[in-house]
């Protein structure tokens, strides 16, 4: 955009000490629209720095999602040669965790840093990542909505005597809730560690500085910014335990520096301009400016300069904002549920409120389901916010929609379930996704432009039994895992490994899960399960604790089966059992049902399993007991 400036000769001068390019401009501005006003603001940015020299500050967060919390991110004192710069640092340590723990999944997160409006933003940190195989290290940044990975490490980088310094450009992620996360995952292997120190988030890109490594008699090495001559003077060869052993050990390393002095001049005011005609809107010494008496819905654009005693800086980039009437910060969401032909289902209607928003009444209409094979049975408030706040409710039920209104003396100040809609699905309904929508929403007797999330009733195509998802996941060594699901007729209905997830329509019956592990050490945390969409819950959860193979029998749905022992020769035979569950017991399996031991060489016939025996002695003396192999006398 073309800007026109008029230079008045009587006021134009150059200070010999401050050049025009040294009159530092602002990094950037942001504009927030309000009711008939825009707020233009800029930050008096201060670099964020944490050296961990005394402790891990309380505003940092450590999250342990693994199985060895003692070896998550810990504030660590330097020992021997293990330090970044001779001072304490942060460390996550898979090596110290050893082999007894399944895995490390550890997060170290900075406090929230308001970087809104920053045009330049850089993350700098020193680290040593010692990789072994499949362990991984990530640096993520919170962009205001989600974690975004900006760096990842899958191989060694740095060392105790030469840590790596990372410089990452975060300019694209500047926001009011910026955070940085150091995320370490060892994926269940006995790995090494990751050490981090000197974390800085800066508005300026680092330059370069010299760092020297050198050998000391006590500490092995250290780092410093002293020159070689200053190092020799500070640590003379005969100066005791902290002296330099050998001058030839001093090596210079060029790394980034965050210390870039900048002469900006003597500050006077901030000046706010209208970017459309370059006219001055206002001046302030504060860090924001409110442009008032505006027209809602019209866009206004701005840039800001810094005025010093020595002159005026360049303007920021242009930013625009549109004032608008305040919008209630509420969201109405309807549940998505599953149902089968002939079922009754409940769709919950929830409200979320932010920034101290509250309501004393609501009214809304629900529709979208009129042309589908469902019938609205009614509106329920038991256990909902409407009942909790003792609001009166009225319902106007039409053929294809229902309008619900409620109000009360108590102010609803937090979110939850407002009410529930109960539907009956026709017994001959076909597969469909039936929309349930909310519209004509009144909050506090005003039509609100609240966000709405529609719900649905999903009827699975061609399924009248149990609509489920079979899954197998969550552990390590998944390549070793396999399984087969067998029905009560002995037929295979599903098979797979890990990870696995697929939907099925399964009849109510007794099922047997055959589990295998090719290595022979069990499934190492992998779980096999069945999630029932209709019940909205996991109804079966199984695993192979150890060994090469195993099996489990379970009932699914309304199976008309009785599990038990079906062998008439067993001591726990159940004549009512319709599905053998492998629980049969025989003489010798229990102490209470021991086998009488036979005398002589013929003895008892062994079956290879552990057995209980009893023997009644008829004389004094010694008894010799022998055991042999399967089908051999014992």
UniProtKB/TrEMBL annotation:
<dbReference type="InterPro" id="IPR013320">
    <property type="entry name" value="ConA-like_dom_sf"/>
</dbReference>
<protein>
    <recommendedName>
        <fullName>MAM domain-containing protein</fullName>
    </recommendedName>
</protein>
<dbReference type="InterPro" id="IPR013783">
    <property type="entry name" value="Ig-like_fold"/>
</dbReference>
């Amino acid at each position: 955009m073309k800007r026109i400036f008029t230079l008045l000769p009587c006021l134009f001068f150059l200070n010999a000490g401050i050049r025009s390019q040294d009159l530092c401009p602002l990094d950037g501005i942001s504009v927030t629209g309000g009711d008939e006003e825009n707020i233009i603001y800029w930050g008096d940015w201060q670099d964020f720095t944490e050296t961990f020299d005394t402790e891990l500050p309380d505003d940092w967060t450590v999250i342990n999602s693994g199985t060895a919390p003692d070896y998550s991110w810990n504030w660590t004192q330097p020992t021997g040669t293990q330090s970044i710069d001779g001072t304490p640092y942060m460390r996550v340590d898979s090596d110290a965790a050893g082999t007894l723990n399944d895995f490390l999944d550890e997060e170290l997160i900075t406090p929230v840093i308001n970087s809104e409006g920053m045009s330049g933003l850089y993350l700098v940190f020193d680290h040593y990542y010692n990789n072994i195989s499949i362990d991984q290290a990530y640096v993520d940044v919170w962009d205001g909505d989600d974690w975004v990975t900006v760096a990842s490490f899958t191989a060694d980088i740095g060392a105790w005597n030469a840590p790596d310094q990372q410089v990452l450009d975060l300019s694209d992620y500047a926001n009011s809730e910026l955070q940085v996360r150091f995320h370490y995952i060892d994926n269940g292997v006995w790995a090494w560690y990751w050490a981090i120190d000197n974390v800085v988030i800066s508005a300026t890109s680092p330059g370069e500085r010299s760092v020297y490594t050198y050998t000391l008699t006590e500490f092995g090495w250290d780092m410093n910014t002293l020159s070689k001559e200053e190092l020799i003077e500070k640590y003379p060869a005969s100066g005791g335990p902290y002296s330099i052993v050998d001058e030839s050990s001093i090596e210079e390393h060029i790394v980034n520096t965050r210390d870039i002095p900048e002469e900006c001049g003597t500050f006077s005011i901030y000046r706010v301009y209208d970017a459309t005609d370059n006219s001055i809107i206002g001046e302030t010494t504060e860090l924001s400016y409110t442009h008032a008496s505006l027209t809602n819905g019209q866009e206004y654009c701005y840039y800001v300069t810094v005025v010093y005693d020595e002159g005026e800086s360049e303007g920021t980039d242009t930013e625009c904002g549109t004032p608008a009437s305040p919008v209630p910060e509420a969201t109405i969401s309807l549940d998505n549920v599953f149902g089968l032909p002939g079922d009754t289902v409940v769709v919950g209607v929830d409200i979320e409120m932010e920034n101290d928003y509250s309501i004393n009444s609501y009214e809304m209409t629900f529709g979208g389901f009129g042309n589908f094979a469902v019938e609205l049975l009614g509106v329920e408030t038991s256990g909902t916010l409407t009942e909790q706040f003792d609001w009166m409710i009225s319902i106007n039920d039409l053929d294809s929609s229902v309008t619900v209104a409620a109000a009360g003396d108590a102010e609803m100040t937090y979110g939850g379930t407002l009410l529930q809609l109960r539907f009956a699905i026709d017994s001959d309904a076909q597969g469909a996704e039936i929309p349930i929508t909310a519209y004509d929403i009144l909050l506090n007797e005003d039509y609100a432009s609240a966000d709405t999330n529609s719900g649905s009733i999903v009827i699975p195509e061609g399924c009248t039994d149990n609509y489920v998802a079979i899954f197998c996941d969550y552990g390590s060594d998944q390549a070793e895992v396999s399984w087969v699901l067998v029905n009560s007729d002995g037929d295979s209905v599903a098979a797979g490994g890990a990870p696995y997830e697929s939907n099925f329509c399964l009849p109510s019956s007794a099922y047997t899960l055959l589990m295998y592990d090719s290595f022979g050490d069990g499934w190492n945390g992998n779980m096999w399960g069945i999630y029932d969409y209709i019940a909205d819950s996991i109804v079966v959860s199984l695993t192979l604790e150890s060994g090469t193979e195993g099996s489990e029998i379970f009932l699914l749905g309304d199976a008309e089966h009785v599990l038990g022992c079906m062998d008439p020769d067993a001591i726990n035979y159940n004549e009512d059992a319709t599905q053998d569950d492998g629980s049969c017991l025989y003489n010798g399996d229990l102490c209470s049902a021991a086998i009488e031991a036979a005398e002589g060489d013929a003895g008892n016939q062994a079956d290879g399993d552990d057995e209980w025996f009893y023997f009644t002695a008829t004389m004094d003396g010694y008894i010799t007991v022998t055991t042999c192999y399967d089908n051999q006398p014992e």
